[in-house]
Amino acid sequence: MLRIGLVGAGVIARDHLATFPHLQGAKVVGVADPLVERANELAGTVGVPAYEDYRALLDPPGGGERQVDAVWICTPPFLHAEQAIAFAEAGVHVFCEKPITVDLAEADRMIESCRSAGVRLMVGHVIRYYPETLRIKQMLESGEIGDPVFAFGRRLTGATMRELSHWARDPKLSGGFAIESGCHEIDTVRFLGGEVASISARVRYDDPAYPGFDTDYRALMELRSGAGAEIAESRYSGMAQWVWGVTGTKATAISRRRGQVSLVGMGQEEQVSPVDPVTRSDRVNASMLAENQAFVDAVAGDRAVPIPGEEGRRNIEVILAGHKASRENRVIELS
Q1: Residue 55 and residue 222: Cα distance in Å, rounded?
Q2: For residues 28 and 4, is the Cβ–Cβ distance under 8 A?
Q3: Do β-strands 2-7 and 70-73 pair in parallel, antiparallel, or remain unpaired?
Q4: How would you write the pLDDT of the chain (335 residues) with one tens digit per residue?
Q5: Any idea what DSSP says for residue 111?
Q6: Domain co-membership, 261 together with 293
Q7: Are 95 and 43 part of one and the same domain?
Q8: CB 194 within 8 A of CB 148
Q9: Kind and range of the H or E element at 219?
């Protein structure tokens, strides 16, 4: 039985914790968060100890051997590298929430630390496990869409900066909007359309109270297959929209809203296919449960994880290349 610890007790940590009782071959044994009241509240829902310092999951108070075999890191991005490396060096497998970190050098250190220690590192890009994404992937593989021509992802939100956590408003801590949130869209484009070969972008920083925070990020990419791709991220759209999909030589498959996927051929009626909800009736995020089970199974079976650290790093690399493309007003080629 894999003993797992949870570091962080915020919103995403709560979603992960809700899946833990349903995992096969694993059990949660502790929760750590510097806001100990929050850690106590969350740990109490599953009857495990709470700690103020994440290191207590490695070195229990009073001594003894480490408590965990695997850890879920659900803290702000700027903390990921330090925490992942500490657990890896102790021989603990690491599941790290997206983005892997805010800096490529730190991502490299995380990857190398896990490799050197012989432990698994997986990054939480859960949209790959959404029923909508899996249906579009199935349509691609079955030939319903044809050869991919264009992959796209769009995340527009009218939420104000004040609604974000203090760390999320600071690009040095979160990486900014495109890294902290838009890494989902880059990952989805890459998952559906393939690897990015080059990128051009226009990035705006329109809130003077938060200099350096990208309020609007729009990128056009060429994929290695020759297809194109686009992502659009905006905090000041005045409306909420979250869509992704693929246009192919036969049809376009798009997820405009959760619970369904539309397939539209040129000159044809739109076909809407229902898919399972992301959140089950017991309030468990089914996609997150599938993602977490895949990590547990990979560790137990001593095999590669579905979304290794290198995948998380590549998403950040592409986004940062878009920032550079915007600053320098040119197309950036990616190796």
Answers
A1: 43
A2: yes
A3: parallel
A4: 999 999 999 999 999 999 999 999 999 999 999 999 999 999 999 999 999 999 999 987 766 778 999 999 999 999 999 999 999 999 999 999 999 999 999 999 999 999 999 999 999 999 999 999 999 999 999 999 999 999 999 999 877 777 788 899 999 999 999 999 999 999 999 999 999 999 999 999 998 999 899 999 999 999 999 999 999 999 888 788 999 999 999 999 999 999 999 999 988 999 999 999 999 999 999 999 999 999 999 999 999 999 999 999 999 999 999 999 999 999 999 98
A5: H
A6: no
A7: yes
A8: yes
A9: strand 216-223
Structure tokens at 10: 């915020």
pTM for the model: 0.96
Domain shared by 152 and 253, yes or no = yes
Phi, psi of 157 (to 5 degrees): -145, 145
Cα-Cα-Cα-Cα dihedral of 170, 278, 314, 120, to 10°? 100
- Measured between alpha carbons, how far is 278 from 125 in angstroms, rounded to an integer? 14
**Cross-strand partners of 28:** 4
Q: What are phi and psi for residue 321, nearest 5 degrees? A: -65, -35
- The whole domain housing 145 covers 128-280+314-333
CB 62 within 8 A of CB 51: no
